[in-house]
Amino acid sequence: MIFASTWVMALAAIRDRMALLMTFVLPAALFIVFAAIFSGATGRDLKLRVGVIDLARTESTQRFVSAMRAEPSLRVTLNTGDEAAMTSNVRRGTVDVGMVIRADLSQRPDQGPPPILVIEDATRPLATAIVIGQSQRILNEKLPNIALARILADVEASGAIAADEREFLDNAFKKQEADKSSSGFSFARIIEARSTDGATKHDSVLYYAGAVVAVFLLFAASHGALTLIDERHSGISQRLTLGKGGMTSVVTGKFIFLMAQGVLQSIIVFAVAWFGFKATFEVSRVAFWLVTSILASAAAAALALGIVAVCKSRRQAESATTFFVLLVSAIGGSMVPRYLMPPWMQEVGWFTPNAWVIQAFEASVRPGSPSGMIVQAWAVLGCIAFAGLIVAVYFSIRRTRYSWAPA
Amino acid sequence: MLEPILKTSVVAEMRGIYAGYVDRTVLSNLSVILQAKEVVALAGPNGAGKSTFVRVLTGTLPPREGDVACDPGDIALVPQEIALYPWLTAKENCIAFAMMDGISRREACVRANVALEMTECATISSKKVSSLSGGYRRRVNIAVALMAAPNLLIMDEPTAGLDADAKRVVQDVMLRIRENGCGVLIVTHDFDVIEHVADRVLVLSDGKLVQDLPPEGLIASVCGNRRPVELQFTDVPEEGHSRALLMAGGIPYGASRWVFLRERSDGELGALREMVDRAGLRVAETRVREPNLADAYSILMKAEARSA
What we know:
The structure holds two protein chains of two kinds. By secondary structure, chain A is mainly α.
């Protein structure tokens, strides 16, 4: 009885080639776009456009500009003009952030305003923060003598350093600078970045694989679940209600089909991530990944069936599922990683299936992930699937019972 | 043939049924017996309680009072809508619904061939439903219901939207199902179909069973020794004239066509002509004919409305 309903759904999918294409090719295509956009926007492939005007044109500012141009995360263009011209460039979006070097970098604080002026646009605050951070890193790593000289100037102004001591230190800086084989000042190496699992840069796409799968599982399941309404309106449900299996078998059959469809979608998207984007593929994690995939698909299928079963018309169901999928995808981290969201929204995110699907996939594919993290996500997804299915069956029976309308 | 499993010739019995919804009672003291090898038509105006009748009979609405003696598992429904999967073939639809009813695939294949043969759909069994004509879709709709080998087949407006030829085929299918031993209940407003296939007519009005007779019995009971006189007026009667025609026992059959029942002995129709002349109406055509089921139903409903 249940298999018959699954078989009918499968034939519907196979015989509607456009729908088949949309179900299995679209997620992979969109994953590629998402992965390219977001892993670039939040990862190491970031390329911010920075416009620089060097008004001072001293030895130190030219060294700084050269170092900035060598920085791979920035696309530096040298501009001419003044502060107003740069402000205009930033406002027009010609560059993401503007930088005007007004004086020599070793200029003492009491001799005027800070030598570097950063001009930001209110719509790109994150870009400014990144450029300031990179500038300070470049100063520390490439021009440490200037950074130190500014500190020493402060110390000298306070009278804590004598002139001969200052001269000795200046000579030491010059010697250090001239010695190319030297690894520089120790404070320039105060920070070292290391990945938790020694991941390659391509592994960031695995996050988006989980995130995109979470969205498409819900979208595809919602589309499939709409057949519940179509069958109710075409009289198929009334006919089936009189059968031995009733609506319980029909809904369960649909649930199984949507779950299988979801697993297939997950396989396609993760295959693109592993073999297309060369993300780390661990054979030992396949079993974990498969369980996650099944539970995530089950949760999406049950949720979609539950929402559609509650709705009275197709239009209602289409609006409800679209709104639901977009909302939980936005809050749950499928569109933007949750760590970039305000703290309260990060907490709210735990009430969405997407957050748990993403956590489960992340923990499944990364070796050494705490087992508690995986089990917790699995438990939540399992509970969502169970509750959604109960709601779907209950409302399918109820709505069909009250939709009888012989002439 | 898909023979129903009959324990008795009575396939369903409703005794003293009161049923309804939260705030209103729809069916009042309804008692009906439905038998095998019988086509019963259920007629009545909108809101008379036909859908509630079917819901009580199929067990989807428990009655407040009274008993329903039938197994809902022995009943199959042919909905008014084409309740089929359009992307499946006619045979695949039969098989799919049978399997959803717990029948094995092998058995479903055998039954599908028989059901499609019985509904004259064997030639289109491998065609997708979406590519079939309206008449074939209706028949496949019936074939799918036959897959459960029911004792009672409920058909909701089985000829809705069909042309005369397609309607005739569906009528033949109904008679074939009856010959096969199954009871058939048709819910319809098509009195032409009822006259051709029904053994009995149940007329519901305001939740009460007002007639339970064979078609010819119903005509005789309502029309007696009278026959309909159809008057086709040259113009649509004004409101005042319509009121006068109604008072004189007229039944509107259209904007300018009215029917009056007159005694067969009233050969000259003198009184009727006099009344029409007095009202200042001009008659384009007068036709005296034998009463049919539609006449009897209209008169019955008018009488019911008057008594209500």
